């Protein structure tokens, strides 16, 4: 099975996506997700201009060899653009291999380790009544775990809070992701002291309202120093969080030693990491509990499985990133991998726009608080190229962040 074509498709059914379609000489097609939110065209160019020409004529079954060829052969290694492009190729080749075998992809990864992958949804509100309504709505949908994000007194908008005034197009409610269609990113303001004072009281109220069984998660979104992160983790210990995510910029891996030594709140790190080498200290010193890298940004199924095999040595589990800028292709790949991994932990799950689902035709099934892949051969994606052409790319960006004195801050 030789690779005959490699087509890069950029489409925007509700938001921007970059999809790689590989076609073999005998007509088998495979799809990979290469979406990098706010930098989509950089990956599209990398694929179209530098990777696709190298794939033509290669044996589609040689997945590991192709992965190493693209990673080591390019000389300029790692980084989100390179690894998203490699991820798209890798995922598309796994899709092809599974279709050629006539079985769902997870069967080639070792078969099922569980009945379904538990997922968490995203509840938010500017104030407690709005937050409680959002949590109840997720419970009604069948979620058994929710990420809780809250407004902060004195701040007009906060990442992850759907009804913040700066969110979405035209200031309306966005439910899952604050990318805005605009020529420049929106700017938000941040006050760490106000946040640290407010958040523990929110989780106290949530626990009092919803009881001890609901799994609660929270994302600090890289905004804290190590000592601030340690303080937050300790202050949230009475409320038994499933995890506390991205408490401090994780490029400084040694900083997690301080956080780990001062709190028993479980820590999830890594949605901005791209390779196993980014995790070396965090995993070997057991400074985290959950790996956050998604298939789309960390070298595909091959790349993430390598990370998770390493993590398994230290009883660290998966918690793969799953925002709506990971397309249904990337989500399907995550579910196939998650259902097979022994050390699966939980999967982030944001509901895609109806237009997105119409273009990609995903077949994953949500029930009883979890996802499972369909029995279709391959990934279970039924991509509609003609419909995709009706949604051209539009510039869209995540916000930037400044402190109250105007200093650019981590977002």
TrEMBL record:
InterPro entries: D-mannonate_dehydratase-like, DgoD-like, Enolase-like_C_sf, Enolase-like_N, Enolase_C-like, Mandel_Rmase/mucon_lact_enz_CS, Mandelate_racemase_C, Mandelate_racemase_N_dom. Residues 129-266 form the Mandelate racemase/muconate lactonizing enzyme C-terminal domain. This is D-galactonate dehydratase family protein. The lineage of its organism: Bacteria, Bacillati, Actinomycetota, Actinomycetes, Pseudonocardiales.
């Amino acid at each position: 099975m030789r690779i005959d074509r490699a087509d890069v498709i950029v489409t925007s059914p509700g938001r921007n996506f970059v999809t790689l379609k590989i076609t073999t000489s005998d007509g088998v097609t495979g799809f990979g997700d290469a979406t990098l939110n706010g930098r989509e065209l950089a990956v599209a160019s990398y694929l179209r201009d530098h990777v696709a020409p190298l794939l033509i004529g290669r044996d589609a079954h040689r997945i590991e060899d192709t992965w190493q060829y693209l990673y080591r052969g390019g000389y300029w290694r790692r980084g989100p653009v390179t690894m998203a492009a490699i991820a798209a190729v890798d995922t598309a080749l796994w899709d092809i291999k599974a279709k050629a075998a006539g079985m769902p992809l997870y069967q080639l990864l070792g078969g099922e380790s569980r009945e379904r992958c538990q997922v968490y949804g995203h509840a938010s509100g500017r104030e407690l009544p709005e937050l409680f309504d959002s949590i109840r709505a997720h419970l009604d949908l069948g979620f058994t775990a929710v990420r809780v994000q809250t407004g902060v007194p004195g701040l007009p908008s906060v990442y992850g809070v759907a009804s913040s005034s700066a969110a979405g197009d035209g200031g309306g409610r966005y439910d899952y992701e604050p990318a805005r269609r605009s020529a420049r990113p929106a700017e938000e303001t941040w006050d760490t002291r106000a946040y640290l004072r407010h958040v523990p009281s929110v989780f106290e109220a949530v626990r009092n309202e919803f009881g001890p069984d609901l799994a609660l998660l929270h994302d600090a979104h890289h905004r804290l120093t190590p000592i601030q992160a340690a303080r937050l983790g300790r202050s949230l210990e009475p409320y038994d969080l499933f995890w506390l995510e991205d408490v401090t910029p994780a490029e400084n891996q040694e900083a997690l030693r301080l956080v780990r030594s001062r709190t028993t709140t479980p820590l999830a790190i890594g949605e901005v990491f791209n390779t196993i080498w980014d995790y070396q200290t965090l995993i070997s010193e057991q400074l985290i509990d959950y790996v956050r890298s998604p298939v789309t940004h960390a070298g595909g199924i091959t790349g993430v499985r390598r990370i998770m095999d390493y993590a398994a040595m230290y009883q660290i589990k998966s918690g793969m990133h799953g925002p709506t800028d990971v397309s249904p292709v990337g989500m399907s790949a995550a579910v196939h991998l998650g259902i097979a991994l022994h050390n699966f932990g939980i999967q982030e799950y944001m509901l895609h726009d109806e237009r997105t689902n119409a273009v990609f035709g995903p077949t994953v099934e949500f029930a009883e608080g979890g996802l499972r892949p369909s029995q279709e051969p391959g990934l279970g994606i039924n991509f509609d190229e003609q419909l995709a052409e009706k949604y051209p790319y539009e510039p869209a960006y995540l916000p930037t962040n400044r402190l109250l004195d105007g200093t650019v801050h981590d977002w």
